[in-house]
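Hi everyone, sorry if this is the wrong subforum. Our group has a chain we'd like a structural model of before ordering constructs, and none of us has done structure prediction before. Sequence below.
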Amino acid sequence: MSTWTPTQLQTITCGTWLVTPGNDDVDVQDISIDSRSVGPGDGFFAIRGDRFDGHDFLRSAIEQGASMLIVDRRQPAMNLEEPLVPVLLVDNTVRALQDLARAWRAKLREKGIKVIAVTGSNGKTTARRLIHQALSLQSRGYQSPKSFNNHLGVPLTLLNTSLSDRFVVAEIGTNHPGEIAQLADIVRPDVAVITNIGTAHIGHFGSREAIAKEKATIIDYLTRDGLAVIPGDEPLLADLTVNDESQIVRFGKSANCDYVLTESQTTATGVEFDVQYSLEQDVFGNWQVEHLSLKIPLHGEHNAMNAILALPVANWECIDITKPEFAQHMLKVRGADMRLEIQQLGDLTLINDAYNANPDSMKAALNTLAHFGDPSRRRVAILGDMLELAEMGPTMHEELGAWLGRAHAKRLDHVILVGKLAADIAQGIGHVNPAMQYTAYPQLDDAVQSKIAQTIESGDIILIKGSRGSALERLIPALSTAQENAG
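Answer:
Right subforum, don't worry. Here is the predicted structure as tokens:
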């Protein structure tokens, strides 16, 4: 949690006082951009967004206990009757928030607090949680709350890091070229992690090559003596290098990786996996090959890979990952909501992965469903549209359908498709496997929810997966009600 005097805030943001503070002794205790979450002593930045303008909530922020307002519109602040708190006018509140985060990053560096940044097309949130779990065995740290990985969330993650923390793990996302550079320039990571290169937001980039170039930008902002952790089986990152003082570590399945996934098995409680890695043992450059077996309460081989990338970060922080305490500690990690979240609805087992979707994460979730639980139980996949693919959307949905028809025709009993692009997935399935059972609906209205619920049988294992805009979690009450009525 950052703490600032009014003078520091004015100096860093180059602001002008509309309401001058009475003295410089009262600190601003924290920074908030949401009037609903403002606490006593917080500084409230009024941010203008697509749907809301923070300047409309200045009075609410004061009532919640804000000790200072930072605005970039003069009139709403001047319209306040007796604001009772200092008001600072800046040119742009977003830029001011980012400048403040840069200043706090410098303080974190002075205190020796390590900053780990995680980017990638898929798995950022899970990888971030796994890294935080691994490092928290040894010391207290902070991590991005939820998926705070954009131009507002990244600065807030840094600003919410306390000087009593020893590390912070921040997500860095992008949906247009140049965003990684902008955010990495604020974060200046000691450790930069790339989870993978996929096709998320490919509509804004045009190709995987462009996505790889964007993700790799994070390495350019790595501090000296830093660590880069990257997927070693990704050809688009094969030529990636770091500065002479830093280290690069590759993880993956191939033998040329530094951390190799040699075995993995999905169980009812998560995934078990084996990893082989090498460590330098002495000053003469001798290396020792190590073997490690771990379990985590997260499902799917892709989460085994997310866990493996946390291991070099732990080793870099001098944590002995071979000790039984480490294995026990990793069993306590928890996944994020609606990311392969297992829920029981009566006799139904629901795999809720409705937070977001792209072709790569769709395949990972479907692979998890295909190998989950008792093989005698019916498996039903309910899939929504994958958004932000632009003109490539129909083609990529059809390709997903073709892959699904080839890969899991014998393991999935029914596929239910919902959304404007559902017909394209259905077309892909039909081309390669007309016998596969599937149903397509153009939208998820009340009538469709009822129809879907009626097709579900007692004991089914169900996956719901789609982009955030699909909001497939709306199905859950209908599924639950159907189960209650059946019982």
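For your construct planning: The chain has three domains: 6-91, 111-330, 341-486. The longest helix spans residues 93-110.
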